[in-house]
Amino acid sequence: MEDATAVAAGAVGRKSGFSAMAAVLGAAGQENYAAANAALDAAVSTTKAAGRLIISIQWGAWSGGGMADASVVQRTRRMGIGALNPWEGLNALSLLLAGLNDSQRSAVFAVSPFEWVTFLSILSRPNPSFFNPVKSSDSVIFATVDATDGMQI
Question: What are the respective helix, strand and coil percentages of the chain, to the nearest 5?
Answer without folding.
Answer: 45, 20, 40
